[in-house]
Each structure stands twice: as C-alpha cells, then as structure tokens.
Amino acid sequence: MKRSFVAIALALFVAPLVFGTIITNTNQSVQYLRLLNRNASLGLDAVYYNPAGVVHLENGFHLAIHNQTIFQTKTVINSFPFLNNPEYVGDVKAPIFPSVFAVYKKDKFALSFGFGVNSGGGSADFKTGLPSFEVPISMLPALVSGFGIPTSAYSADIAFSGKSFYLGFQVNAAYAINEVFSLAAGVRYISAKTTYEGELANIMINPQHPLVNPGGGMMSAAQFFTLIGQPVYAAAVQDMYVDVTQNGTAWTPLLGLNIRPNDRLNIGIRYEFNTKLTLKNETAEDDTGMFPNGYSFRADIPAILSVGVQFGISQNFRAMVSYHQFFDKRANWSGDEKLVDSNSYDFGLGLEFDISKAFLISAGYLRTQVGVSKAYQSDFAHELSSNTVGGGARIMLAKNVALELGAIYVKYDNASRPMTIEDFPLPFSESYERWAWAVSGGIEFRF
Q1: Terminal Cα distance for the chain, rounded
Q2: pTM to 2 decimals?
Q3: CATH number 2.40.160.60 given to 2-446
C-alpha cells in the first residue's frame, strides 16, 4: 500500500502541469449575456464577435465599457468509502470581469480595439480541499490497522485555491468591399496568468498503540510513524504546501467576413487560429517536487470557427442564431489533447424586440457540448456540457448614449468517472456538478 499512498498523495499537484484550456470565454459583452448569440453582431461588440461587421456602424468614434459579475459553484462528489465527507464544494467568484470595445469608422474603413478576459477569470476556493488531497489520507486508518494497531479516524487541514486570468488585447482592420461583403483581419495578444495555492497539513490519526498512544486519542501521523520506526511513512505525511504562478504570452491571428444581402439579413463569420501558448512555472514553494521552478509546458487556446445569422422578422423584432466550433483536438496540451474524443461546440437562438425607440428587451438560449473523455476529467480539471439562458434590455439614455443590461443562468450537465486504486479491492466513482450565474452592465457612446 505504500506505493499507492505516496502516488495518490501527489496526484493533485501533477494536474496543473498538464491540463490545457478547453473553453474560451465567449461571454465578452453585455449584449452576449442578454442574447447569447452575437456572431452576426452589427453593434460595438462586433469587435470581438464579428470584426468585419463594424463597417456598418455610423461614421465616427464609438466606445463601450462593460463589466460582468460572475458566480459559480463547483461540486465534486467522491464515493471512496473511507472519506469523512464525500462532497467538496468550490466557490468561483469574478466580481470584476471587464470588456472594452472601441471603433473608428470612416466610410468603407474601420479600425477597432477590444479588451477582455478571453479565458479563465475569477478565483476558485475549495475550503476543504479536493478528493485528490484527502483520499490518501483517508486510507491511513486502514493502513495502520493492517499493522495490527487499531485505528479508526483521521483528520487534516486541507485547502486549495486557484486563480486564472487570460487577458486579451485585440486590434482589427475592416474594409467594405461593397454594400454586401466586408472583410476583416486582426490579432489578439494574450497575457496568461494562473496561480495555485494548496496545503495538506496537520494530519492526525488515532492509533491505539500500547506504548506510543495507549489512550487511542488523535495524534500527529508523522510523529506516530517516526516513533514506530517507519520513516518512509513519516515523510509521506509531513505537511505539504504549494504556491506557484504560471505565466505566458501568445498571439492569436483572426479573420472575419460579413455578408449583408439586405437590411433584414446579416451573416457573420469569424475564424481564430490556434493560439500557441506556453506557460512557465514561477514556484515560490513546492513541498511536492512536482512544480520545478522554470518548467515550461504547452497550454494552447484552441482555434475557433464562429458563424452567426441575424434576421429581421419584422421592423422591431429580430432573431439571431449562432454556432461555435472549438478545434480542441488540434491544440497542444503537452499530450493531454489525446484525451479529447471530439471537438466541443455550441449553438443557440436569441430574440430581440424593440418596445420603443429608446427601449428594447431580449432573451436567448445556448447549448454547449464538450467532447472530452472520462479519462480527461478530474476533481481539479473537468469540462461539462451546459444549457444557458439569458435576458436583458437596452435603454437609450441620450441620442448617442446607451445603457446595456444583461444576466445569464448556466446549468451544467452532471458527469462522472469510475476510479480504482492499486491495492484497494473495490472500485468507486467521482462525479462533478456545477452551476453559474452572472449579471452585467455597460455604457456605450458615439462621438
């Protein structure tokens, strides 16, 4: 059992080294939250969603400043029979999730700039750690009892938190070939940063040893193994801490095409090339030896093909449909792209209705389907398919000033994977649950 115990105890800390980014943050604007379908946008957020569509803005300078406040709960349930509590809950918070869009339009030409959090965002806090921390600790009573020393309980101080921000700075140039077709080309600079902090400390057990602990009370596991002459086990249960930051930069080229046959129909197409991102460890503390300072690994952002259609059902009623294809299997995640069965994608429908010239409302639905295998999923990094609904409004505060409001709710599909441990005779399982919601607001100007 010794080999299994040590290997599992380190399993969590291996994960950050190898898992890449699957889901790109497509929630880049307030309009997206209230419609969920912006790939054929002719508004200011077209800078991100439909860069060739900005040529249909009025001449002049346009500016938008948006923010979202996002909350998410991640729950991991592990059925390993020795655990004190099978449920681990992580809270994800992103009170500040900004985006900025700026466009200068002159006749057939348009230059645009966009800023947003293109992946990651927010902090995840698991106050009781994750199963990868606790499963090996929960095996200690059985291990010590196997030595002929009755032991029935364990405890430990376990915690894990992580933060991730991939900031994107994008510039585009667009040109209208004629009234129907327009083209765009651009590039996005990505500045990526992730941080992980974890602790596994104060491991205690209650061995009823006639000399070392005759009363059978809780005592330090490291002290116990030292006193009975088991230095390998004593070393394995010492306090472990991790404090690591991973940084990297990359460039994403992108192309856009907009087709507007008439005033009622618009089609937007965007292709983002694979972002070749390398992250590098900056390790402040690592008692596991799994985060060597200076170690680099690939964590690409997959290429994306997006297609959207906007159709005017009537003069004041519009429908939008969209589709994203994420080319996960082409990305380089230091080999873990082999754990992807199929590329992920999403599609949806949005509706927008003008109540008056100054006020409109909207609603949308989006289905996201991921294609990772069960072998990819872990308590640290798992991807889930989801259903999202959103809604909101636009209010014209003045002729050239608009207030955008939006909100979404996301319900993720549950997923699970079977698990086994060497030298443990019974299989068990781990399941993943998640939900999220966000509110947003933004102000837009035309000068």
Answers
A1: 71
A2: 0.90
A3: yes
Whether residue 13 is predicted with pLDDT greater than 60 in this model: the reply is no
**Phi/psi of residue 47, nearest 5 degrees:** -50, -40
Q: Where are the domains of the chain?
A: 2-446
Strands (E), 177-302: 181-205, 219-220, 240-259, 265-272, 278-286, 296-298
Q: Going by DSSP bridges, is the β-strand pair 181-205/154-176 parallel, antiparallel, or unpaired?
A: antiparallel
Evaluate whether 181 touches 187 at the Cβ level (below 8 Å): no
Band (23; pLDDT cuts 50, 70, 90): low
- β-strand partners of 247: 193, 280
- pLDDT for residue 338 is more than 70: yes
- Whose structure tokens read 């010794």? 2
Which residues does 274 contact at the CB level (< 8 Å), separation at least 6? 300, 301, 302, 303, 327, 330, 331
pLDDT at 363 over 80: yes
Strand partners, 94: 70
Q: How far is CA 384 from the centre of its chain?
A: 10
pLDDT value at 382 more than 90:
no
Tokens of 87: 């449920």
Angle at 119 between CA 254 and CA 284, to 5 degrees: 125
Distances, alpha carbon 214 to alpha carbons 17, 151, 206, 207, 326, in Å: 44, 12, 10, 8, 61
Determine which of 50-59, 167-176, 228-237, 343-352 has the lowest per-residue pLDDT on average. Answer: 228-237
Helix (H, G, I), strand (E, B) or coil at 299: coil
Task: Check: CB of residue 192 under 8 Å from CB of residue 249.
Answer: yes
The phi and psi torsions of 336 (rounded to 5 degrees) equal -80, -5
The two structure tokens encoding residue 30: 């307030």
